[in-house]
Specification:
It contains eight helices and no strands. Helices cover 67% and strands 0% of the residues. With 203 residues, it is mostly helical. The longest helix has 33 residues.
């Protein structure tokens, strides 16, 4: 059934669902995640945005659509959560670009997918910290940022990665379509492996 769904549509829907789930997780677990001075933000949406790269199905989605969906996901994230248009709207495509450039050096395995995701999420969190500091909405020392925001956020998102990666990878692999564009058939003599003789040659 899933093979009839294009990976691009699956990706776009899952990104929107992940943005919604991030808000739900943050709301339901606010007493634990945002207990001062700690602030651990769930970013399931970033994991889903990176899944075409992490699962090796980026050719199915196409890079340009990966950026477009990341941009749209960031816009929705900014509207509903940050309240400032431009932070995630720029940060999510930037994170997608970072992951694409990292993953090209690694094989498509869960371990290397986790490494790519980890480095990309660190990049986004650092960008997020600098962006809010630039507009004077965050006044947090670098050491405090690492201890009270970066580390707890990585921890909660590592749990989300371990819980969700296998299921997401299955969905993306299940919608993989044959790559007919690069499928070549060499001309071969179909009778080369068979020893057929004419009736006149048998006698």
């Amino acid at each position: 059934m899933l093979k009839y769904i294009h990976t691009t549509w699956l990706h776009a829907i899952l990104v929107l669902v992940a943005v919604y789930l991030d808000g739900g997780i943050a709301l339901q677990l606010a007493g634990v995640l945002f207990k001062l001075p700690t602030a651990a933000s769930p970013f399931l949406c970033i994991l889903v945005i990176l899944m075409p790269i992490l699962s090796g199905t980026v050719n199915q989605v196409r890079m340009r659509w990966g950026y477009v969906i990341a941009f749209a996901g960031g816009l929705v994230f900014d509207i509903f959560y940050t309240g400032i248009i431009g932070i995630a709207m720029i940060g999510f495509p930037l994170t997608f670009w970072v992951a694409a450039n990292i993953q090209r050096y690694f094989p498509n395995t869960m371990f290397w997918a986790m490494a790519t995701w980890f480095l990309s999420l660190c990049t986004y969190l650092t960008y997020d910290y600098l962006a809010f500091g630039l507009i004077n909405l965050a006044n947090l020392a670098p050491a405090s940022f690492v201890v009270f925001h970066l580390f707890p956020t990585l921890l909660i998102n590592l749990i989300l990665f371990l819980l969700c990666y296998q299921g997401l990878d299955f969905l993306y692999q299940a919608t993989r379509q044959p790559d007919l564009e690069h499928y070549n058939v060499d001309r071969r003599d179909l009778n080369s492996g068979l020893n057929f003789k004419r009736r006149s040659q048998r006698y």
